[in-house]
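Encoded backbone
================
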Amino acid sequence: MTPSSHRAAPRMCAALALAVVAGCSASPPVAQAGPAPVIEPEVLAEIPHDPAAFTQGFEINGSVLFEGTGLAGESQMRQLDPAAGTVTRAVDIPADYFGEGITLVGDKIWQLTYQDGVAVEWDKNTMAPVREVPLSGEGWGLCYDGQRLIRSDGTSRLTFHDPADFSEIGGVDVDNDGGQLKGLNELECVDGQVWANVWPTDNIARIDPSSGAVTLLVNAGALRERGIPPTAQVLNGIAHVQGDEFLLTGKFWPKTFRVRLGG
């Protein structure tokens, strides 16, 4: 995939060849035979979102929604009011890097860069860059499961990193019913599972990082019918609120959706 295709991904609607399974329980994911069930998000609220934001990372911490944006020369680390969607603070990424996924670890924030070969650590409170560390390969999505950082690079691979120094400590290949699930993008770690936007679609996969198995697929294409213009790019932004509630947005989307993802 070329840098231009990542920066300007065309809209490609979800084309999942799986039946929608209704009435999924909220019990923990279990091993299953055959395709993962498919659900659609239940929309609870619509919140304004900066339509100029090329969203790459999305994570709530207390009363603050952190957002990392992309594009070379335009990338920022932002703080938002999660209820109103307004940007309360924005800081440019160092060196005009192309910013990618973000995640919080204590009072620090890790932010990936796309093809710049570094990850940037920020101070969460001062919103100042603290250091840069080498990054092998491309950076796409990032989340923290309480013990390790989990990174995507646009392939079917999830790579594990030590949160102290970003050194690689393992990884897993993601499998969807016997086939690789490629295009893993923005990530959110929740209760031992990884939720991943799947580029270049408006789909989300829930992944068991211990096995790499996809345990649930979310077809979020219908969100576009709620005022998302055709010029907006793919869904890319998952922030866990509580329980099975999440905030979802996309690149250049004028709205963020508070949704319930059962399953």
The longest strand covers residues 235-242. The chain has a mean pLDDT of 90.
